[in-house]
What we know:
By secondary structure, the protein is α+β, with helices and mostly antiparallel strands. It has helices at about 30-35, 125-130, 135, 140-145, 170-185; strands at about 15-20, 20-25, 50-55, 60-65, 65-70, 70, 75-80, 85-90, 95-100, 110, 115, 120, 150-155, 160-165, 190, 190-195, 195-200, 200-205. The protein has 5 helices and 18 strands. The termini are close together. Mean pLDDT is about 80; it is low at about 1-30 and about 40-50.
Amino acid sequence: xxxxxxxxxxxxxxxxxxxxxxxxxxxxxxxxxxxxxxxxxxxxxxxxxxxxxxxxxxxxxxxxxxxxxxxxxxxxxxxxxxxxxxxxxxxxxxxxxxxxxxxxxxxxxxxxxxxxxxxxxxxxxxxxxxxxxxxxxxxxxxxxxxxxxxxxxxxxxxxxxxxxxxxxxxxxxxxxxxxxxxxxxxxxxxxxxxxxxxxxxxxxxxx
Length: 207
C-alpha cells in the first residue's frame, strides 16, 4: 500500500464573535478561559515545559510552541516585541481547538490562524504527485522490498525546495529515482506563521 504522511497537519478553524474581535473555538472553550490570558507575561511561562521557542531577530521571545511527535499539542503562546501577549491558542493532535488574539494594546483582535502550512503549487496535492511516479520509484526488486521510505523536504520562506534528506537507508538506484521525482515538483506556497513567510520541513513517508 502506498501513501504519504506529513508531519504538518491542517488546522480547522471556526469563529465566534467576541466584542470587536474574534476567537476561534471548536470545542466550546469558554471566553473567560481564553481571556484569562490577557494579563499574562513572558515571566509567567518561563518555567513551563515547552518544546520549541522562537525569537525575533533582535532576540526577544516570539512564540512558545508545545510540540509532541512533530505536532502542536497543548497551549501555544506568542508575543509582541515588547513582551505583551499576542496570541493564546490550544492544540490537540496538531489541530486548533480554541484561540484568541490581542492587539499591541491588549484588546481582543480579529483571530487569524497561527500557521498556514506550505502547499505544493498547481492542481495536485503532494500525495497525488508522488503516487503518479510510484511505479517509477519502485521499479526494481530492491526497491519493492522497501516497506517504508521516509524523506524530509526542506521548503524555504520563498516556497522553494532547497534540499531534502533521506531518513531511510535505500539502495542508490531508488535514491536516484526518488531524487529525480522530487526535483520535478513545482514550487510551493510558503508556510506562513503569524503573517510572516517562514521555512518549513515536511517528513514524507512513502509506502
